[in-house]
Write a sequence for this structure.
């Protein structure tokens, strides 16, 4: 089964297939977490990450890195420095593992004084995933978000994908809510890849998920500033 965008109403362009995607947190998931690191020489892939991504890419998954980088808003490093780090990261994945990354999405904003997102893109907000889905024709309902904190899990669920926890020690608060319950917990990239490959039919496509019950979403939304929840409602219809 495959999902297609409707024919473009303005140009009449033919429908394009939507692809499933693995959205990947960077620090503590794809690479070892060195807080606010901007030095390419300190990049260390998590064990097995490159090999796993090569298998998943081969199976037909799009790959998009989604990363909170409040160090930009805090003035710890510049956009140019971060761009240099990303360039090395993406090139090393290609050179060492043959992995092509479709996009790297960055939230440059800081959270508010209570640690909550003050923008629509900082995880646990789903803005980066939704924007990437539009840009790259991704099918969120057949996609996954993997990260080492429950904020990553929540962002995945809020985007309409499945949120998976890569348990490498990054989560310390364990604040729970229905949207923060991982659809799977993994402590190695090998087992994560096996899980995703088993969930994908031979044509690289798995059936769409049932929609998240609205009541579940509302309960979890209470953690958020009212204004932001309402703003998100216009981006994510299930929050309305
Ligand atoms: Mg992380
Ligand atoms: Zn942001």
């Amino acid at each position: 089964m495959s999902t297609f965008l409707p024919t473009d109403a303005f140009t009449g362009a033919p429908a394009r297939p939507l692809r499933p995607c693995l959205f990947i947190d960077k620090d503590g998931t794809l690479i070892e977490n060195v807080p606010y690191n901007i030095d390419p020489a300190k990049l260390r892939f998590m064990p097995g990450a490159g090999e796993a991504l090569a298998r998943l890419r081969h199976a037909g998954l799009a790959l998009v890195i989604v990363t909170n980088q409040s160090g930009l808003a805090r003035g710890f490093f510049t956009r140019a420095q971060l761009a240099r780090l990303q360039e090395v990261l993406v090139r090393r994945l290609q050179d060492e593992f043959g992995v092509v990354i479709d996009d790297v999405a960055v939230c440059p904003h800081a959270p508010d004084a209570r640690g909550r997102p003050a923008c629509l893109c900082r995880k646990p907000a789903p803005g980066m995933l939704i924007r990437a889905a539009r840009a790259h024709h991704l099918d969120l309902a057949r996609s996954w978000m993997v990260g080492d904190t429950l904020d990553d899990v929540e962002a995945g669920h809020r985007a309409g994908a499945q949120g998976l926890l890569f348990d490498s020690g990054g989560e310390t608060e364990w604040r729970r809510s229905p949207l923060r319950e991982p659809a799977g917990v993994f402590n190695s990239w090998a087992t994560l890849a096996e899980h995703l490959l088993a969930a994908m039919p031979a044509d690289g496509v798995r059936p769409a998920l049932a929609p998240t019950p609205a009541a579940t979403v509302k309960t979890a939304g209470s953690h958020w500033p009212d204004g932001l929840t309402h703003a998100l409602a216009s981006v994510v219809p299930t929050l309305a």
